[in-house]
C-alpha cells in the first residue's frame, strides 16, 4: 500500500442506515482503487492489530506504542449520525496514513492488506 486517502463519507440505506468512508487506496504497482468502509470495520481492524502486536500497541509500556489511536466510538442521537461521520473524516484519514507508515511487519501484515483490499461490494456499491 503506497498511499491511502479518505475522500468523503457516504450515507447508505442497505441493509440499514449507516455511513461509509470513501477511501482511495494506491498500491505500490501504481493501481488505485476506491473502497468503502464503515467505522465498525476500522474498529475491528484496530482490535486485531492490538491483539496481534501487544508491544506495539503499548500494552506493557504505553511509551512503546506505535500503533495509531483510532478515534473512539461515540454514542449519539439519531440526528447527529452524519455530524459524527464527518467529524471523524480527518482523524480516520490520519489513522490510515499513520497505519501504512508503520514498519512493514505491521503495515504489510495480512490484516492491514485485507482491510484495504478491494471487495466485491466496493466494485458495485448499492445504488440509492
Automatic annotation (TrEMBL):
Domain PX: 1-123
Family matches, as Pfam families: PX (PF00787)
Biological process annotations from GO: superoxide anion generation
Database matches in Gene3D superfamilies: Phox-like domain
Subcellular location: Cell junction; Cell projection; Cytoplasm
Keyword list, A-Z: Cell junction, Cell projection, Cytoplasm, Phosphoprotein, Repeat
Alphabetized SUPFAM superfamilies for the sequence: PX domain (SSF64268)
One Gene Ontology term, aspect cellular component: cytoplasm
Top-level lineage group: Eukaryota
A GO molecular function held by the record: phosphatidylinositol binding
Alphabetical list of CDD domains matching this protein: PX_FISH
Protein name: SPD2B protein
